[in-house]
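Sample A.
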Amino acid sequence: LTPQLLKAIWKERRDSLKAIHLAESLEEVAFVRGEPNAFEREIYPLAGRKPFSRPKAESPVKYLEMLECLDANTIIVHSIFIDRDDVEILAREGASVVLCPRSNLYLSGALSPLPLLKEAGIPTALGTDGLGSTPNLSMWEEMRTLWFYARSKGWEITPQEILTMATYQGARILGLQDLTSLKPGQEASFMVIRLPWDMSPQEMASFVLFQGDLYLEAVYIKGKRVL
């Protein structure tokens, strides 16, 4: 999107949720820095588009900040190539982040620096991206991929935190956090997972993360069983 179009969208929809895929590749970083990049070298010619003029920025996050296109209604999808300065900007503006672990690893070989996001208190959820970069849209696979990647990096994260990212945090970012609880008068959308034995809350979280899809017995949406 041109700077003019981005600014127009944020001005027109200041009070609406806006999701933007950002900092997903090193080519994107080169693009906002005004350096040689695959977008202008290969992709634009294939699409019959010409490069457009734009201000230069050190990073995609700083590019959006420069254009005043960051706010509490902004959802940043991916955010792989960001640093501490970028995280501080996102936190200050009140933006949220969505990680798509399998897609991110397939296309870029890395994930967003989750420890920095946690430290800054940035709401962070999980997504699947699309079938162009993942074999299916399984949230269980996304959760497990994040778990193993975090372990390989020495990040401190619990199964409970990952489950929260896949459920409550996503709803919270979309302003639908009330849908994540079961209480009188609330929309009854939930899954039923059979536990083979009594478990502590910690054991239950681990079981659901690693085997929940194998023991899924039912899915209800608005009180109606659909599976």
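Sample B.
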Amino acid sequence: MPKVVSANPGWHHHVTAMALIRGLPPRFLVALSLFLGATTLYLFTLAPSITQQHFGVDSGELTATAYTLGVAHPPGYPTFLLLAKTFSLVIPWGDVAHRVNVFSALSGAASVVLVYYISHLLIVRTFRVSGARLSRASAAAAVAAASFAFSPLFWSQSVIAEVYSLNALFTAGIMLLVLRWMRGCWPIIVAGLLMGLGLGNHLTLVFVALPFTYVMVLHRKELTPMLIAKLLGVFMLGLSVYIYLPVRASANPPISWGNAAILEGFLWTVSASTYRGLVFGLPLADLPERLVEWAYVLLRQFNTLGLLMGILGVWRLRVSKLPMLVFTVLLFLPSIAYSVTYKTNDAQVYLIPAFMVFALWIGVGLYWLVNLAVETFTLRLRLFASLPVVLFLAAFLVIPGLQVLLSYGDIGL
């Protein structure tokens, strides 16, 4: 029998690729799409080199310090310096400044993926989602993650050499792991490790300790002495990244703040005592103006529809799953309080964890609203079955989509 040869051999590869894609979990495909979309946008708007735009006054110092493996200004940022240096050695294109900017972009895109998984988990647990409604939960979580990805403040920090997109990655990673604790002990152990390591990137990660502790209190019966010992052990292991400071300071690098090679200099650096007066340092007379300004910043991140959807999400969590509301509020409020009262003009960058939480609330509110619309119209009036798709698409276009159109020109460098 003669051998049959395909007229188009590439067709077989196309079919194989499509079959492989169909075999992947739907949530993974959504997460991959979000990562690729965010990465593409961040790279298109990426700063080509060092910049002071978008509150990037430390961009040059952080890039140069990472390149020379020095010691940055307090608290030293050892985790950022080590990761940025490693990444700059791995990718083969661009100068060092461009490579560190790409590192920020990929950290931001990875954060978006984790926000998607957190949002999906939050929705599923709040509304006890199962069956066909899982696709709606995934769609709502995708809108929430995209809303965070394209919020102007977070977007701006993902295109420059700064520590805040990496801080968001640590924040989201710890939150997701803590919420997954019920699947075994390993998530809480990894979360403890990330907490220690992440504090080597930015000290404001300490705010995640509040929801972390809250979940531990809720599950205190499962906290065996052995688990607590392991948790403290891995936390200290992660925190040991600060050993980098005296080790490198003793090598006399070109950039070295505080003489961290000696104990006094090390403590001065890691405690960031030189900035202590800025913490809660805003005069009370300036507080009303700052609150109004920060409220506008929140509105600018998500626009009016996103703001209303987030408020709706808070209400639904209050009604349906109070512990989940407490979990998110314990990160939202400290981030707001710290940022509002921090006595610098660029303090709004500390709002990013709060905006991450607000994006999660948007996902909850959107999921509940779409379900309400489906139950009200589709079941009673037997309207078109694609109503959820239309509503989720409309929400995607109006909240994150509109933010891209409005902010692209301002953020692109």
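B remarks: Residues 26-411 form one domain. The longest helix spans residues 287-320.
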